[in-house]
Design goal:
Elements: H1 2-33, E1 38-42, H2 53-61, E2 65-69, H3 76-88, E3 94-99, H4 102-109, E4 115-121, H5 132-136, E5 155-156, H6 163-167, H7 173-181, E6 186-187, H8 189-192, E7 205-210, H9 218-227, E8 231-235, H10 241-244, H11 246-259
Helix pairs in contact: 2-11, 3-4
């Protein structure tokens, strides 16, 4: 009887230990999945940080701490400095996200030690020694594309008459008009400045291809992301899918956050 009681006690203890370990393991796994809670968003040319409002709302409601960088757009170096300043202030690892020109910025700024992973939203992704302009010239521009030649101050603007159709066709005209009015002055020298150390060579990278993009041709996005072994998600939409489909873009950022500690 005592042997049976001892046997039952041992069996019960093993079951309890198994349940406890499973609970602890589950807790640890959940904690690891939520390890990266900071997201830093970097905007591109012909825009400013206000365009990230919808994406910000989705991510913050899910518990993420979001910082929006206001790029000066005066040079690659200046934009990288602004991004690194934002990264310095993070209280832990962060997912660094760049749209369009912002992709070149995060490619350089992503070497910051707090960056766990990179997310490219219809963005440039140059390699060492390459510039954004090199990639822009690998495909003929769409008829809707309204990028103008630099003015006498070296600033590049987007043709106002083409802005809605060429840059952000899947948002309302009212939103497009505000976005055009609030854009920063983008200095052309940024386009021709080469990357010195491409962060995607050392850190996990995720890319979103906007299949209806008229500003950076989808084939350019595909070629860059394929070359770098970036994990790709295609979204049917314009160059500003982060505005028109923030939930889908947020899902990729969250995936990067849950797997950010893993190397490619």
């Amino acid at each position: 009887m005592k042997k049976q009681t001892l046997k039952n006690s041992l069996k019960g203890g093993i079951v309890a230990l198994t349940v406890a370990l499973a609970t602890v393991t589950g807790t640890v796994t959940e904690a690891a999945a939520q390890a990266v809670k900071n997201v830093v968003l970097v905007h591109g040319a012909f825009a400013d940080g206000s365009g990230y409002r919808a994406l910000y709302a989705v991510l913050t409601k899910k518990g993420y701490h979001v910082t929006v960088v206001q790029n000066p757009l005066t040079s690659l170096e200046d934009d990288v400095t602004a991004t690194k300043t934002a990264l310095d202030k993070q209280d832990g690892p962060a997912i660094l996200v760049g749209h369009s020109w912002g992709g070149a910025v995060i490619t350089e700024a992503g070497n910051h030690p707090k960056v766990a992973a990179l997310v490219y939203i219809a963005a440039f992704q140059p390699d060492n020694g390459e510039s954004a302009l090199q990639w822009l010239q690998t495909a003929a521009p769409a008829p809707e594309n309204g990028v103008l030649a630099p003015d006498d101050k070296g600033i590049v603007y987007y043709d106002k008459d083409k802005y809605h159709a060429g840059f952000c066709a899947d948002i309302s005209k009212e939103e497009a008009d505000f976005m055009y009015a609030s854009q920063g002055a983008f200095y052309a020298k940024g386009f021709i400045t080469p990357i010195t150390h491409a962060a995607w060579r050392d850190k996990p990278a995720y890319g979103l291809i906007a299949t209806e993009d008229k500003s950076i041709a989808p084939e350019i996005q595909q070629a860059m992301y394929k070359r770098s072994n970036t994990k790709v998600t295609e979204i049917k939409g314009s160059h500003v899918i982060f505005m028109s489909q923030p939930e889908k873009v947020a899902a990729v950022i969250i995936e990067a956050a849950t797997k950010g500690a893993q190397k490619k």
